[in-house]
Design goal:
Blueprint: E1 4-13, H1 19-25, E2 30-37, E3 40-48, H2 52-64, E4 68-73
Antiparallel strand pairs: 1-3, 1-4, 2-3
Length: 74
């Protein structure tokens, strides 16, 4: 049974120019950004249950390279 997962993370990114890179790096999910203030954004992810592990891995890589700093999950 496949389900759709929607998650929102409050994140700080290195700069706005990295948004296209982030969108391509998390290729297992539909990615959208909502600007909050400065370099702080809501990162919206929508993906299928089958892709959950891939999305988590892709997000972890971005975090480890200091491109995305997840402040908290909404």
């Amino acid at each position: 049974m496949s389900g759709i997962i929607k998650k929102t993370f409050f994140v700080k990114i290195s700069d706005e120019e990295s948004i296209p890179y982030i969108k391509s790096a998390i290729n297992s999910a539909k990615v959208d950004f909502r600007k909050v203030k400065g370099n702080s954004f809501d990162l919206l992810l929508e993906y299928s249950k089958e892709n959950e592990q891939e999305v988590n891995t892709e997000l972890q890589v971005l975090k480890s390279h200091k491109i995305v700093d997840v402040l908290f999950e909404n």
